[in-house]
Structures are given as C-alpha cells and as structure tokens.
Amino acid sequence: MSDQNNPFMKPTRRQALGLMALGASGLVLSGMPGMGKALAAQPKTIKGQLTVGFSQEPTVFNPHMPHIEVDEGIHFSIFDTLFSVDPEGKFVAALAAEVPTVENGGISADGLSWKAKLRDDVKWHDGKPFTAEDVKFTIDLLVDPNFRSWRKTGHELVRDLTVVSATEITWRMEKPFAPYPSILASTFITPKHILGAEADKNTAAFNNAPVGTGPFKWSERVAGDHILLEANADYFGDGPYVEKLIYKYVPDLNVMYTQFKTGDIDVVGLQWITPDHYDEAKALEGKAVDVVPGSTIESFTFNMERPQFKDPAVREALYHAIDKQSIIDALYYGLPAPTESYVPQQSFYFNPDLPKHEYDIEKAKKLLDDAGWAAGADGIRAKDGVKLSFTCSTTAGNHIREQVQQYMQQSFKDLGVEMTISNLPPAVMWGDYWMLSKFDTVIVGLDFLTGSDPDTSDFFRSNSSPAKGGAGQNTWQFANTEVDDLLTKGGEIFVPEDRKAVYLKIQEIMRKELPFLPLFQYATVRGHKKEVENVIPNVNVRIDTWNVATWRWA
Predict the structure, then answer these.
(1) Could you tell me the pTM of the whole model?
(2) Do residues 409 and 302 share a domain?
(3) Which residue in 69, 129, 284, 436 has the most C-beta neighbors within 10 A?
(4) What is the spatial distance between Cα 88 and Cα 302, in angstroms, rounded to a whole number?
C-alpha cells in the first residue's frame, strides 16, 4: 500500500506533536467529522432506516466503563467528544467551539495550562442544556476511585479543573502528557444532571438507557438481537439523515454475510466480511466492497498469571509452533500482513527491526526440553507439578478463528501441549471473562494505539490490569518495570523523532517477553449498499460508526 493513501504515513512534526498537533488541525467546522461538502450543502432530510450488522453484541452503554470496540459503535451514535479525529489524523471541533491550541490560547506553551471553549447550542437528548459542568463531571468520574473506569491514563494528571462559565472550562496538567489530546478525542462526555444524580455510577439506570448529545437517541434493546436508535432532530452537528438506526447482532459471520448479500443488512460492521467470501462479495450487484487496511492486530494472548505461562520458554516455544504464514494464506486468503509488533506497520512509530518469527517445531521442542518440561505418560509435558494444558477461547461463531484454533491445537499436540477449545458468545467472551482475566489464552484482535498516538499505557502499564484493581486493558496482567518507566518517559516527550526511540524500545521488550503472540495486522473486507453514502474508513478510531451521523441514503 502506498503512503499516499495511508493514514498512518509519517506525520509532520506539527501533526505528530501531542499538543502541537492541535495547532495544525484546530479548525472550527460547522459540522461533525466525515462531513462532505456535497452533504453539507444539502438541506437536512431525515428519512428511512439503516441496519448495521455486528458479529459481537454491544453490552456496555456507559462509555466510561470497561468495554470493547463494538460497544463504541453505540457510543459514537449517542454521545459526543470535545473534539474528534478524522481519517487524516486531524482534530475537529465537536462539543468544543474550537480545538484548543497554543496558537489560539487554549494551551500554554509548556503544555500545562488548558482552556476549552464550548458550544452554547448543544442539548442533551432530554432537552437540558450541555454545559462545562458536564465536562468537569466526566473527567472527575473517570478518576473516581469508586467507579469502574475504563481509562484513567491522562485524566489522572488533570488538576484544578474549574468551570469558568457554562461555555468555558480550565485545568492544568500535573506534568506535560503528549498523548492527552488523542485521549480527549476518544472521551465521550456524559450528563451530570442524570448520571451524576445516581448514588452508584457502576449500577446506574443510565448504564442501560444512556442519554447523550449525539445524533441518535436510545430507543430499545432486545438482548441477543438488536439495538434500535432514533434520530435526534435537534442535533447540533451535521446529520442525522436517517430516522432509525438499527444495530443487528449476528454472531455467525457466514450468516451476517448472507444477510448482507440478500439486503437485510445495509452496512456490514465489526467483524466485516470474512476473506473467504471476498471474491464473491466484490462482484455483488449494488454493493460497495473494499479491502481496507486496519490498525487492529490479531494475537494469541496469554494470561500471564497462569503458572504454565510464567516460563518465557513456554511462550517462545508456542510461538515457534504456530505457522503464521500458512494460516494467513490458507484461511485469510493472503490478505493480512504478518507482524511482530502491536504497532501498525504504517505508523511512524513502528519498529521494523524486531526478530522475525520462525515456524520450527523442532526448535520449539528443544526449548521446552531445555527448560525442563518433560512429557508424562499421557504425552502432555509438565514441570514442577504444572501441566502444559490450557483452554483457548474466542468468539463463538467466528468460523475462521475456530479453524485457526483447530490448526494450533494440532500443532501444540505435536509439541506435547494440550490446548482445549472453549469458545463463548461475544457478550460473555468480551465481558468479565476477558476484562477480568478469567481466561487461559485468547485469540483476539486489538487496536493498541489511541488514534495515531503510540502511547499504550492502558494496555501495558503494570497498574492497568482490571483483574488487579487497576483501570485499563492490561488483561494479560503483564508487569514490567522497564516498560512502566518507558511509558512514563514517552508521555513527557513531544518531539516525534525524540519520542520514537522510546516506543521502538517498548516494542523490542514486548517482542522478547511475548505476553501475546502477534499474528497479523488486519486487512478487512468492508461492505455496504452503494446507496448508503459517507461510510468512510478511519484507522484513528476503533469502530466504523465514527461518523454515523452523516450516513444517509442517496
């Protein structure tokens, strides 16, 4: 793929600076991201309904509680951020009247003092006005020790958060933190007058009937089937253009493709069209089908607190026992790119010099032999009373991943390792089972970066494991003091060329430690009816519906 068409191409110094990036993109647009000139020039006509297919079921509707990508499909529909990020990586004003920059006085030159000016024409879905009190409430909530926050990184550095007026809020940072603009761009604002009135935010009624400022209002949820949203006719931004938005849950990817082919689904969302259907799909009449490079990395992930995975020789041996290229060629039709890193290969921060994976069963056996893992009478290796036996889980109904599991299961058996397949419905799989590290191993696709920013504190910092009481997504319970120190250092550097060395080193450590085995970087097959306009990929967000407000029928 060429850099010309790649949103991860090397940024300019101004774009890549955590704070100064805002200066390059702090334009105040009258509409929301994804607004095309042709769409903006037309009068707003709200008509019809759109059905979006998801293979995983959204279950977390409070955007500040631990959640996965599919939940954000709903969050983008119901809520707004202060500013968002477009496909080119530029920040665009949303609830903020303008993107804070050094040039406009929103950020001090040292990056410590912040001032956000807000729109005065925004209302919550219940008609109450949106104000700076809601922004303060949201940031305070994220660091509330009594709340099950999904992210404290960055917000925990905010001090002296002050509501100056209904349309202005100020704060200072305890220290400069380069990733904070990208974090704010993915922080949805929630209503103080509703959620703030709840005694326990973790069990609030709001969590099952969310109220936002976004283009669509919550209507109903039929668990296991669909979520229905209705147009917010008073939306301040561009759109919405459809009366009803339906998120349909179809766990079997073959069934979801069939429903797209027959027209029951208008847009195929997460996890899109599987590669085995690509040749047929691209020839379907009336359908727009494209291969889109993604920032998601597929991996075989370990729970590092399981005794059999504490030995690095085990993790390395299992990696040697996986024939990545054959899996990609045979099951994914050669579309994804094999990788050794969690960073997308087009990123400025990608480390191309990591050791290349080598499929070698004999080397894997020798590693285990040398480490003292000996086969027992049943053929399964063991050491100090611990057997090399574990379960592997992923989303039930993902037929390609299930084939990958079967392939790995046989390879590991030849190695003297017993892997039992134990797949679960998405709502169970990606709930507490995943977030609270109740698994042994998992096959999972993750977007590790926040937009194009390389910070991965939520994933790799020792105190970011929910199973250990932390806020974050360190579900493999990885702990490494050197990585902790490097993450701290990287967050304090604003020049990308200087910052890059830190993240190259982190990738080197992760490749050596292997808390997860990187398999490939996604190349996804996306599809929608040709009559549906403005469905635009954006690798700087975690879900397709980042600009769903502007989707419309031609």
Answers:
(1) 0.76
(2) yes
(3) 69
(4) 34
